[in-house]
Amino acid sequence: MAYLQVTLQIPNENRGAAAAVYQKYKALFLETIADAKSKELLARDEDVQVLHGFDTVENARRYLASKLFTDDVVTGSKPLLTADPEIRVHA
Q1: C-alpha of 85 from chain center
Q2: What contacts 76, CB < 8 A, 6 or more positions away?
Q3: CATH of the domain at 28
Q4: Which residue range forms the structural domain that includes residue 6?
């Protein structure tokens, strides 16, 4: 199992909108991305994390280059952020 962890700096006033972006694309992610296994939203006091589960590290990295991630998720989230996302892949 591999995980893609995306950490987002989102102020409290934008967290509802960020959750809406997450909900909008969660099912599409699970249905259309190769070997996608899970997607979870973790809201913490200091940040918001989205944890994606995959079969392999290669598929996690492939998702980062996908149209769904680059055109939809990033575009929808970018106006809500106060800093660039921190992206990590874990095996």
Answers
A1: 10
A2: 21, 24, 25
A3: 3.30.70.100
A4: 2-90
pLDDT in tens, the chain (91 residues): 999 999 999 999 999 999 999 999 999 999 999 899 999 999 999 999 999 999 999 999 999 999 999 999 999 999 999 999 999 999 9
The two three-digit tokens of residue 39, written as one number: 């997607």
Number of structural domains the chain divides into: 1
Write the DSSP assignment of the chain as a string of letters. -EEEEEEE---GGGHHHHHHHHHHHHHHHHHHSTTEEEEEEEE-SS-EEEEEEES-HHHHHHHHTSHIIIIIIHHHHGGG-SSPPEEEEE-
Contacting residues for 47 by C-beta, under 8 A, at least 6 apart: 7, 8, 9, 10
Cα 28 from Cα 15, distance rounded (Å): 21
